Amino acid sequence: MGSPTGRSREFLELKQETLGCRQCKLHETRNSVVFGVGNPNADLMFVGEAPGRDEDLAGEPFVGRSGKLLDRLILQEIGLDRDQIYIANLVKCRPPNNRNPEADEIQSCCGYLKRQIQLISPVAIVTLGNFAVQTLLGTTEGVTKLRGSIFEYEQTKLIPTFHPSYALRAGAKVVAQIRADLVVAKEIIST
Ligand code: URA
Question: pTM to 2 decimals?
Answer without folding.
Answer: 0.97
